[in-house]
Write a structure and sequence with these properties.
The chain is α+β, with helices and mostly antiparallel strands. It has helices at 5-15, 26-42, 45-50, 66-72, 75-83, 233-244, 247-260, and strands spanning 17-20, 57-59, 90-99, 106-109, 128-133, 144-146, 188-190, 197-201, 206-208, 217-225. The protein is built from seven helices and ten strands. The N and C termini lie far apart (37 Å).
């Protein structure tokens, strides 16, 4: 029996994730695979050595490509938010994340950035990722794994207390015996088909299995604020400040504004920005 959009929203709010199938047609998946290969080829080899656990994590504004911009504003993608009850989402960041053949697992982490703010301890919609896998995924080639409900309830992995993507032995995957790479209590796999999209709460603990195959496993991750207008003023200021401090990001906005304008957040108030804090403080 298929799950309704209302049930998917409830799953997203309560468990921290949900999946929509067949969001992108095969032609778009092909185009995005080509874009990803081009993007990866532009990157410095040092990047891949420092980020063996991710494979690579390249922001869309570093090597701008029209196909990534097309994905951000894709009607089928945005219709997913509409089905979930979010009619005016705003985009924040996005990345090409590609695990090469025989690459190690991605470590457990969460991506929340407002752990000093009361909003982070509620079930109100906040920052969501949309993950578009460009190949079919399974345990063997590095599918996503998550711990349902870990965006609202403390888990033993939160004791690690490292920021999500700092460069250290975890990011470089030099010691796979660390808890960050192990099976975790309550974890489940989320295998998907190319063209599906996984939507998740930034606070959700997630990781990915190792890629044991001879083929790349690429995912395009885009971060949105699905209910931007309802966010507190200080959170909006945090978001705007994060934009304006990144010159490459600002340049991308200016170059794509003709089509991305409705998705670009704005704030003209004078409230002091909320504090950026990636260290989980769930009790």
């Amino acid at each position: 029996m298929s799950i309704t959009a209302k049930e998917k929203r409830e799953q997203l709010i309560n468990e921290g994730f949900c999946v929509f199938e067949n969001v992108l047609k095969s032609e778009m998946v092909y185009k995005l695979n080509a874009m990803s290969e081009w993007t990866i080829a532009q990157e410095d080899p040092v990047h891949f050595e420092e980020r063996r656990s991710q494979g690579c994590i390249i922001p869309y504004w570093k090597f701008p490509h029209p196909a990534f911009t097309e994905l951000i504003v894709h009607p089928s993608a945005l219709s997913v938010f509409s089905k979930l009850g979010f009619d005016d989402p705003k985009v924040w960041s996005g990345f090409v994340i590609s695990k090469p053949p025989h690459a190690p697992p991605l470590y457990w982490h969460q991506d929340g950035v407002m752990w000093g703010h009361p909003l982070s301890f509620t079930n109100k919609p906040q920052q969501y990722f949309m993950m578009y896998y460009l190949v079919d995924t399974n345990h063997r080639n590095g599918c996503l794994r998550v711990i349902p409900g870990s965006h609202l309830k403390r888990h033993a992995l939160h004791d690690d207390n490292r920021t999500a993507h700092e460069r250290d032995e975890v990011s470089s995957a030099t010691n796979l015996d660390l808890p960050s790479f192990q099976h975790a209590e309550g974890e489940i796999d989320i295998p998907v088909k190319a063209g599906d999209v996984v939507i998740g709460d930034s606070r959700l603990l997630h990781s990915a299995h190792a890629n044991q195959t001879d083929q790349r496993r690429t995912v395009l991750t885009i971060w949105y604020w699905p209910a931007y207008d309802s966010l507190p003023e200080d959170v909006k200021k945090l978001i705007i400040d994060h934009y304006t401090k990144n010159s490459e990001w600002v340049s991308w906005i200016e170059k794509t504004r003709s089509i991305t304008q409705p998705l670009i957040p704005t704030y003209e108030g004078e409230t002091e920005a909320a504090t950026w804090n990636n260290s989980c403080a769930l009790p």
